[in-house]
Automatic annotation (TrEMBL):
<feature type="region of interest" description="Disordered">
    <location>
        <begin position="1"/>
        <end position="21"/>
    </location>
</feature>
<dbReference type="InterPro" id="IPR003673">
    <property type="entry name" value="CoA-Trfase_fam_III"/>
</dbReference>
<keyword id="KW-0808">Transferase</keyword>
<feature type="compositionally biased region" description="Basic and acidic residues">
    <location>
        <begin position="1"/>
        <end position="13"/>
    </location>
</feature>
<dbReference type="InterPro" id="IPR023606">
    <property type="entry name" value="CoA-Trfase_III_dom_1_sf"/>
</dbReference>
<dbReference type="InterPro" id="IPR050483">
    <property type="entry name" value="CoA-transferase_III_domain"/>
</dbReference>
<dbReference type="GO" id="GO:0016740">
    <property type="term" value="F:transferase activity"/>
</dbReference>
<dbReference type="Pfam" id="PF02515">
    <property type="entry name" value="CoA_transf_3"/>
</dbReference>
<feature type="region of interest" description="Disordered">
    <location>
        <begin position="360"/>
        <end position="411"/>
    </location>
</feature>
<protein>
    <submittedName>
        <fullName>CoA transferase</fullName>
        <ecNumber>2.8.3.-</ecNumber>
    </submittedName>
</protein>
<dbReference type="InterPro" id="IPR044855">
    <property type="entry name" value="CoA-Trfase_III_dom3_sf"/>
</dbReference>
Length: 411
């Protein structure tokens, strides 16, 4: 079993090895595919973990075929979005030879991540009970759609969970049809929960020497992420409904039209509302009995919306954004994604990064453009070592030699 305490010189000269990241020395056997699991393991890889992506022969991760769009080499941008800093090996888990090689890889790893349908890993002889008995230090992270009990047979697709988990019931216009989020948000949230669970289990292992099973599922991850909406039901029995871009508890907290495109107003207190009224040339509005407090504004939101819409229609969203932000009012235009990256760049925030000198298939060529890791660490920042790998690119390197390019460090 690999440990987290390898000395840096054990990996000297190995271009695939993590440098000095917060998770340097941590090895993850990643049997997951599509989004939730790969997103979790990419975040950990960015922070220094050595992630070995185990893929099936021929097709590999499902998302390799999910295009358009694709990059200049014809590689799915969906796959590219969650698989950097990983090495890919191909194993046929339907054959004993493949399973034996998988067990060897697991024996030399700290963490296993999988998101097969519940029961699949057990049928392959790779279930958590068997592996934790054999390797008590292993962290075994299992990601499912609806848990390993009564919901085990339900396929775990993000759209399905958004529907049955209530998110679509609060997304969309009040009198329109339910709408899904524009990205697979539940998968992303579940991936975050998985990475958090893994780190918590590693902290426990540091203290006790014992690994454990970490289980996360899409449904309860969504219910937790519904925060105030879920709390409204749990505490007060309120079943929320669709309100478009309005907020059930705050006003004005929504998008409103301007002369050219919508602007978002996120007015969270009375001081900000007074500043808004001053900025749009209606200073007396803050003292109007209908709008004096937030509760008043929520009760009269339609009247307030009509007044603000008339004022905001006199100029562009960019004009009002500049005026309102200068007045201390949280506001901004509804950007397209290119505008959003440009905005981040303007603010000096990381948006897009390049992994130089490599492409996913050849290992050499033009830089691979990637969306930046979202966490900033002052001492051990995120690293961009490897582009998303070509299918099975590292199979021989990993399975026929030491995992870290030096003498095997398994214990």
């Amino acid at each position: 079993m690999s440990t987290q305490h390898q000395e840096p010189d054990e990996r000297a000269g190995n271009p695939h090895a993590p440098g000095h990241g917060a998770l340097d020395g941590l090895r993850i056997a990643d049997f997951s595919r599509v989004l939730a699991g790969p997103y979790a393991t990419m975040l950990l890889a960015d922070l220094g973990a050595d992630v070995i992506k185990v893929e099936r022969p021929g097709t590999g991760d499902d998302t390799r075929a999910w295009h358009p769009p694709a990059d200049q080499d014809g590689i799915s941008t969906y796959f590219l979005s969650v698989n950097r800093n990983k090495r890919s090996v191909v194993l046929d888990l339907t054959e004993e030879t493949g399973r034996a090689r998988a067990r060897d890889l697991i024996a030399r790893s700290d963490v296993l991540v999988e998101n097969f349908r519940p029961g699949t890993m057990e049928r392959l002889g790779l279930g958590h009970e068997e592996l934790l008995e054999r390797h008590p230090e292993l962290i075994y992270c299992s990601i499912s759609g609806f848990g390993s009990g009564a919901g085990a047979a339900i396929p775990g697709y993000d759209l399905l969970v958004q529907a049955v988990g209530g998110l679509m019931s609060v997304t969309g216009q009040a009198h329109g049809e339910p709408v899904k989020a524009g990205v697979a948000l539940v998968d992303v949230i579940t991936g975050l929960h998985a990475s958090l669970g893994i780190l918590a289990a590693l902290r426990h292992r540091d203290a006790t020497g014992r690994g454990q099973l970490v289980e996360v599922n899409l449904l309860t991850s969504l219910l937790s992420a519904m925060v105030n909406q879920a709390s409204a039901f749990a505490v007060a029995g309120v079943v929320p409904e669709r309100m478009g871009n309005a907020h059930p508890s705050i006003a004005p907290y929504e998008t409103l039209p301007t002369a050219d495109r919508p602007i978002a107003l996120a007015v969270g207190n009375d001081r900000q509302f007074a500043a808004l009224c001053e900025a749009v040339g209606k200073p007396g509005l803050a003292q109007d009995g209908r709008f004096r407090t937030n509760a008043d504004r929520v009760a009269h939101r339609e009247e307030l919306r009509d007044i603000l819409t008339r004022r905001l229609g006199a100029a562009s969203a960019d004009h009002w954004s500049a005026v309102l932000l200068a007045a201390g009012v949280p506001a901004g235009p509804v950007n397209t994604l290119d505008d959003a990256f440009a905005f981040a760049h303007k603010l000096g925030l990381p948006g897009i990064v390049d992994i130089p000198g490599a492409t996913a298939d050849s290992g050499e060529g033009a830089p691979s453009r990637q969306v930046a890791h979202p966490i900033t660490l002052s001492g051990t920042p995120a690293q961009y070592r490897l582009p998303p790998p070509g299918l099975g690119r590292h199979t021989a390197e990993i399975l026929d030699g030491p995992l870290d390019g030096s003498d095997d460090a398994s214990g």
